[in-house]
Amino acid sequence: MIFKEQEATTVILPLDVAKAHGLEYTFPSKLITLNIHSSLEAVGFITEISRKLTDLNIPCNVVAGYYHDHLFIPEAMLEKAISIFPKSGIKTTV
User: Which residue intervals define the domain CASTOR ACT in the entry (predicted)?
Assistant: First the structure.
């Protein structure tokens, strides 16, 4: 994924690809895909998930697709982060 912003261009890609091309990188993370079709008009869905991650002191970057939302979580916090989903009834793919 590529996001062109005024300050710079952000590229989301696998870490091994970044390293292989000698690219500078920050925020090595793991991807959690929420396997629930969330409406583009839904209000508060990601807010609730963000609140639960905040309670566990877990930072998160969210990318919303048309059918699913995707969370980028720091590698070391992945197991802790996925623990919130069974309690919420949300199925995930890691």
Answer: 29-84
Nearest Cα residue to 81 out of 48, 54, 53, 50 = 53
Where are the strands (E) in the chain, listed by range? 2-4, 9-11, 29-34, 61-64, 69-74, 92-93
| Domains by residue range for the chain, with CATH | 25-93 (3.30.2130.10)
Helix (H) or strand (E) segment spanning residue 6:
none
Q: Provide the whole-model pTM.
A: 0.84
Q: What gap in Å lies between CA 4 and CA 11, rounded to an integer? A: 9
d(CA 81, CA 59): 9
The model's confidence at residue 27, banded by pLDDT at 50, 70 and 90, is very high
Residue (of 93, 90, 78, 92) closest to 30 by Cα position: 78
